Amino acid sequence: MTTFSLTTSSSPSIAIFPSHKVSRINRNIYSGFTEHMGRCIYGGIYDPGNPNKHLLDSRGFRQDVLEALRPLQVPVFRYPGGNFCATYHWQDGVGPVQDRPARPELAWGNVETNHFGTDEFMQWCQAANAEPYLCLNFGTGTLDEAMAWVEYCNGTKDTYYANLRRQNGHPDPYQVKYWALGNEMWGPWQIEQMTQEAYAERAVQWAKALKLLDPSIQLILCGKEGATSWDYHTLKRCLQPAGLSDLGEERLPLVDMHSIHLYTASHDHYENVTAPLAAERSIEVCSGLIDLAIVENKIPASQKRPTICFDEWNVWSPPRAPGSQGAEEKYTLSDALAVAVWLNVLVRKSRDVGMACIAQSVNVISPLMTTDTGIIRQTIWWPYELFCRFMKGHTVAVHVACEAYAGSTKPDWVRAVKDTPWLDVSATVDDDGWVSVCVVNIHRESDLMTRLGGVDGQKVKVYTITGGHPEVTNMAGTEEVGLKESDWDPDPSQDFAFVFPKCSVTMLRWKMQ
Ligand code: AHR
Question: What InterPro entries does the annotation carry (predicted)?
Fold first, then answer.
């Protein structure tokens, strides 16, 4: 929880209360997303045609990509889309590679060779030490096909699709826990766009069958942006009381998480860095809609409350980086600040968010880019890395007092519903007693000397992300925006003041005494 009070004094202050734990952070908020789109799979994580063979392992996986991602301990990767799911038939992508059919791919206008499919993705997740999260085809797919996929991945009995997996060389079940009931089914760009009523009806029927087949799975409902009537309707229809039916049968909860998506962007720095606050309000409203469905549907308190799965989020302007051209956004320092504000939002809202997937993990609107000869860490890599490494355990209470940006926001309604302080802050304490505080100074002209409460007597490690100007990128191959480490001894005679540089992300860390 962060509280903010507006001050007209030129001296901001941040008080951190590490012993006031607000909520447990689910590490799954640092999850990733790999879609068959642009160069994410082919040329990103899987690149067998690359002449620089030293970059590849024996399966054609990019080792430099895996080596970059592994230290982040990305917990989950979503796959195979996104919009790609709506015409994807998983059976095209299993079995001998030479026998797999090439198909027209309608979401992004490509040809899908199916050389990379379910088994390759499972092996890649194992190599990345991450769990898979699969999205079902709610467009041209059928329930039969969806059940067959669950059986192929998780089946342990002597059944057709479990045996097909064994026949393909994979004796052990993959135990895929997370399954999405379609992707953005409300979108006019979808193959088989649906009304909220039609979608909710189908989601209920599929969920019932899928949970009968494998009660261990978690199902993710396809919401919209969190604060829409689609979210209200789908939650209201699909959150149902579990427990014993009239016939004495145990009914499982149909859905475990509610997915929402949002991309933010603006060429204007202040609109860009304040836009993620729209996500914060969307989470708050969506959380209220979950509660409303619980109340209206009389869900018993003993039933686990569904969380929000923010399974696509990032800075992305489709006109600037069109999906049909691979959506290779070139991220700026301003975007790095925006991503840090996004991550602050996810930490502040850790009570409600059970999973979040940065979209995407390689090449497509991504912190990490590949070339034929290596990788480039974009500006937004650095806040993502810092949060994955350090912002875990519990969210803790913070009070921020400073002046606020008062100009236009994007969307416009952010201005009406959120404060937009110059310093955007979240704080955590991990299970070893390390306190981490992320402070984003969104001001493009002013360093902000800030009094810190809660750091008395601490030896503080400082991690700073900044660069020459808000528009600078790393895409020329030089690291214009990187990570600098230093130490700070808070000085009581200086009122424990720390200067947060203009246009920067700073993480302060200390071990509680
Ligand atoms: O992540 C890129 C695309 O954005 C996804 O395929 C889709 O779900 C969203 O519209």
Answer: Alpha-L-AF_C (IPR010720), ASD1_cat (IPR055235), GH (IPR017853), Glyco_hydro_b (IPR013780)
